[in-house]
Amino acid sequence: MSTIGSLVDTHCHIHSEDYALNSEHVYVESIKSGVNKLICVGCTPQDSILAIRFAENHSGVWASVGIHPHEADRYYSDIKVLQNLAKATKSPKVAAVGEIGLDYHYKHSLPTNQKKLLRHQIGIAQAKKLPIIFHVREAFDDFWPIFDSYSGLKGVIHSFTSTQKQLQNALDRGLYVSINGIVTFMKSTEQLETIKNIPANRLLLETDAPYLTPTPYRGNICAPEHLVKTAEFLSNLRGETYDEIASYTSQNAHDLFSI
């Protein structure tokens, strides 16, 4: 378990071939900053393998394997790829399946194909009894009926920025919600109030590095060490001490991902 004051970045991509910073240096700086556990999240079949390799070579790092909804048109019917993804979950460093879900903001893949890919990957997670990292953007109306057609699912809505209604939908289903640097530059008082309303036992922290860099580092490539600023912002927003936030979010990460 993490000690008081330390943080867990439950969603980053520092293992990726596209990550513009030196991953080894970023990992070292993460530990120095107090972010001492990381989950590297896969977005494609190859990216998921890279996440596993990085996790296997670094203490305090785990992997999540999955195919992002943007890639659905390419992979939804590729049985061999999906079978290999299922095999990849055998690594003891795989803590979750994800990120998987629906994204209707961009039109990279057809909604019908996204739904098929999502269902297949939920099946992989169920078979391996793994939690799921869900990516849902402008698609909750289609997502919840799919989620509700299964039983016993556990997981997290990653990069949560939605409404109180969608927060309650997630909580009613036993899901966690994960907050990243977006919160530090949110302008909507309604959204900020929703973040304040997340129960302590359901809140996780993430960076989504290299994306969504928090204030005051906007314009720089995001790294796990920046999670400290998000935690500091949440401390002020929620009226809790930094150590309280660090303690319960780390406990939640342990409870969901067994890390």
Index terms:
259 residues, alpha/beta, TIM Barrel, 8-stranded parallel sheet, 42% helix, 17% strand, globular
Describe it for me?
The protein has one domain (7-257): Metal-dependent hydrolases (TIM Barrel). It contains ten helices and eight strands. The chain has helices at 23-33, 45-56, 72-75, 79-88, 111-128, 140-148, 164-172, 189-196, 227-238, 242-257; strands at residues 7-12, 35-41, 61-65, 94-103, 132-137, 155-157, 176-179, 203-205. The protein has an eight-stranded parallel beta sheet. Strand 2, helix 2 (45-56) and strand 3 (61-65) form a beta-alpha-beta unit. Helix 2 runs parallel beside helix 4 and helix 9 (227-238) packs across helix 10. It is globular, with a radius of gyration of 17 Å.
Concise summary:
This protein has ten helices and eight strands. Strand 6, helix 7 and strand 7 (176-179) form a beta-alpha-beta unit.
Q: How many distinct folded domains?
A: 1
| Count of alpha/pi helices | 10
Poorly predicted parts: none
**CATH superfamily caption:** Metal-dependent hydrolases
DSSP strand tally: 8
Compile the SSE list and pairings.
Layout: E1 7-12, H1 23-33, E2 35-41, H2 45-56, E3 61-65, H3 72-75, H4 79-88, E4 94-103, H5 111-128, E5 132-137, H6 140-148, E6 155-157, H7 164-172, E7 176-179, H8 189-196, E8 203-205, H9 227-238, H10 242-257
Parallel strand pairs: 1-2, 2-3, 3-4, 4-5, 5-6, 6-7, 7-8
Helix pairs in contact: 2-4, 9-10
